[in-house]
Known about the structure:
Blueprint: H1 2-23, E1 30-36, H2 44-51, H3 54-57, E2 60-66, H4 70-78, E3 84-87, H5 90-97, E4 104-111, E5 116-120, E6 136-138, H6 145-156, E7 166-168, H7 176-181, E8 187-191, H8 194-200, E9 205-209, H9 210-214, E10 220-225, H10 226-231, H11 233-252, H12 255-262, H13 271-283, H14 295-307, H15 317-320, H16 324-331
Helix pairs in contact: 2-11, 11-16, 12-13
Amino acid sequence: MKPIKWLFSLLAIMILLIPIISCGKTTSVQTVRVGEVTRSIFYAPQYVAISKGFFEEEGLKVDLKTTWGGDKTMTSLLSDGIDVALVGSETSIYVYAQGSSDPVINFAQLTQTDGTFLVSRKKVDQFSWDQLKGKTFLGQRKGGMPQMVGEYVLKQHNIDPKKDVKLVQNIDFANVANAFASGTGDYVQLFEPTASILEQQGKGHIVASFGKESGTVPYTTFMAKESYLKDNPEAAAKFTRAIYKAQKWVNTHSTDEIAEVVAPYFEDTPKETLKTVIDRYKSQKSFATNPLLDQKEWDHLQKIMDESGELPRHIDYNKLVNTKFAKDAMSE
């Protein structure tokens, strides 16, 4: 009888241990290395996805770093320094036009308008675009989306950026605001929160939005090499689902709530400035409400690039845009 009692005791212990062992199991977590072209409130949904744990819910760990500039971001992606890049879609066109054997594919859109604003040195009660004629305009880097959109908007208002304004493009991105604050130029094209900070300091006045004027474009998207998406389709699907959760969250929560969540990423920016900027971007629908990059936006992007003389050649939508991950996320 004793061996039988011993056997039953052993079975009882094993039954009690099963739940403990099950609870101790760890789910495999995949790390995705993401390079953002700059640190910007413009990318609020991305920070929401991280802060609210949406990536963790999908079994992903996001290793985010700022790669400072389109060229550096794309170099990091092509050299496998990062897995996913958050950068303007025009960069994928430039890479493809150079004959890449492993093209960079846009798979999830984050912002859908330009994020820059026109800042005037003088306070203007009744602004009209023709007031720029004959003035010095500090633009952005040649070939980048801000500059191309800037020129496109000027042309829409019958201003030739090469003839009607003194266009300054030789100032480094990081120093454009400082150059303007120091007295260079009559108008400047700036991202937030720099534009609002200059306004608060009395050194400039926001008079227009390039985002409102230029229409919807795939201004900033998540992209990866074709080989990465082929080898990691599950990670790409999870990543896109997390972004979509964040987009829905941003779309249904207040400016104050969004500011609270993203504040840790902008420790040097006052909370009130954060709120001002987020509200401005929300009101002009800069944050995409879903990750789908549609063909109309893609065609508009290439039109803007073509008019600025920066489009190397027209690239078919299906060559550089993968909509599967976005559509699957939206249908779930």
